[in-house]
């Protein structure tokens, strides 16, 4: 089930979606270990990258073990997006993605993210600028449109292909839908009919089996999984029970902590790690109690100690 993205060959159709505050290097590596063929970074603001702001440069952290990896840019200025793309083009990454789907108010207020779904002219300028400044494949992540009265995905997809993009990921909800309501598979099919480049279906894929079903139903090139992968990196593997034992969950979380300490320092950001940690126990009978204990930790060493104590208890059962 491998396919090509420009000069890159993806070994399977399962892709980790970009998620702000979540898809940092340790989590991408973990998803890669569980079978993700391609992982996307957190979104990177073009002005901050061009200004070389330290907090932005942290987002560029990568490792050979996660290849192929995509870095995602967002912004509303074609020139700055092109400059930022030129910087990313020099990094050891596989491709560059353009964010045209983020619904966050602070992003769309500036005309970036999902706001570009109602501005095809500006979208074309941005995609063209990024493609001209990159020798690496460029992908675009879009939504169905701005609202149910403005379904622009097929039009934007044609523009993206004509401007040089080599794949499109579509979250088939509008900006006004946010993350609620049904995925509109009709729009996905319309987009697939409008272009010849690979299309990745995104939104509400909650298991490996669902991903396979969607691939068969739509005939798309890949499925991009976001929120359902948090605390469940095994979603990318067809060899793992999608409702694993507590022992498996704890082992996965311990590996996450190991990767975080290796790549982010001995005491990674507590709030970020806590946000990941409790999700490993969603759906488990003791999940709510474990979450309370995780939320009660006030330092990373305390969180780490709790997880190791939990591991000793669970693995001895």
UniProtKB/TrEMBL annotation:
Nucleotide-binding among keywords: yes
Residues that bind FMN: 18-20, 72, 141, 171, 226-227
Cofactor or coenzyme needed: FMN
Enzyme Commission number: 1.3.1.-
Active site: 102 (proton donor)
Catalytic EC class: oxidoreductase
The UniProt record lists the keyword NADP: yes
Residue stretches making up the DUS-like FMN-binding domain: 15-299
Catalyzed reactions per annotation: a 5,6-dihydrouridine in tRNA + NADP(+) = a uridine in tRNA + NADPH + H(+); a 5,6-dihydrouridine in tRNA + NAD(+) = a uridine in tRNA + NADH + H(+)
Keywords: Flavoprotein, FMN, NADP, Nucleotide-binding, Oxidoreductase, RNA-binding, tRNA processing, tRNA-binding
Highest rank taxon of the organism: Bacteria
GO molecular function terms listed in the Swiss-Prot or TrEMBL record: flavin adenine dinucleotide binding; tRNA binding; tRNA dihydrouridine synthase activity
InterPro entries (alphabetical): Aldolase_TIM (IPR013785), DUS-like_FMN-bd (IPR035587), DUS_fam (IPR001269), DusB-like (IPR004652), tRNA-dHydroUridine_Synthase_C (IPR024036), tRNA_hU_synthase_CS (IPR018517)
Coiled coil: none
Biological role stated in the UniProt entry: Catalyzes the synthesis of 5,6-dihydrouridine (D), a modified base found in the D-loop of most tRNAs, via the reduction of the C5-C6 double bond in target uridines.
Record family assignment: Belongs to the dus family.
PANTHER family: TRNA-DIHYDROURIDINE(47) SYNTHASE [NAD(P)(+)]-LIKE (PTHR45846)
UniProt-recorded name of the protein: tRNA-dihydrouridine synthase
Organism annotation: Thiovibrio frasassiensis
Gene that this polypeptide is encoded by: dusB
């Amino acid at each position: 089930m491998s396919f090509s993205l420009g000069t890159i060959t993806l070994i399977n159709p399962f892709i980790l979606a970009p998620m702000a505050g979540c898809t940092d290097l340790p989590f991408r590596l973990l998803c890669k270990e569980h079978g993700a063929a391609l992982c996307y970074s957190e979104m990177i603001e073009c002005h901050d990258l061009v200004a070389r702001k330290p907090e932005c440069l942290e987002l560029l952290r990568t490792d050979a073990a996660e290849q192929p990896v995509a870095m995602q840019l967002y912004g509303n200025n074609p020139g700055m997006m092109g400059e930022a793309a030129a910087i990313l083009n020099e990094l050891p990454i596989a491709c560059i993605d353009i964010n045209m789907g983020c619904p966050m108010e602070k992003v769309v207020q500036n005309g970036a993210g999902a706001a570009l779904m109602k501005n095809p002219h500006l979208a074309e300028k941005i995609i063209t600028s990024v493609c001209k400044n990159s020798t690496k494949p460029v992908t675009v992540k879009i939504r169905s449109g701005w609202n149910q009265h403005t379904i622009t995905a097929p039009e934007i997809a044609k523009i993206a292909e004509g401007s040089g993009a080599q794949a499109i990921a579509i979250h088939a909800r509008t900006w006004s839908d946010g993350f609620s309501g049904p995925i509109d598979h009709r729009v996905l099919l319309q987009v697939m009919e409008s272009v010849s480049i690979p299309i990745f279906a995104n939104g509400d894929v909650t298991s490996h089996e669902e991903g396979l079903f969607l691939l068969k139903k739509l005939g798309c090139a890949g499925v991009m999984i976001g929120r359902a992968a948090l605390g469940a990196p095994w979603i990318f593997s067809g060899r793992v029970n999608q409702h694993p034992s507590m022992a498996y969950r704890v082992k996965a979380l311990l590996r996450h902590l190991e990767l975080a300490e290796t790549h982010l320092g001995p005491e990674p950001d507590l709030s970020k790690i806590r946000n990941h940690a409790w999700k490993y126990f969603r759906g488990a009978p003791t999940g709510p109690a474990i979450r309370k204990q995780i939320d009660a930790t006030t330092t990373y060493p305390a969180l780490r100690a709790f997880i190791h104590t939990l591991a000793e208890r669970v693995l001895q059962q």
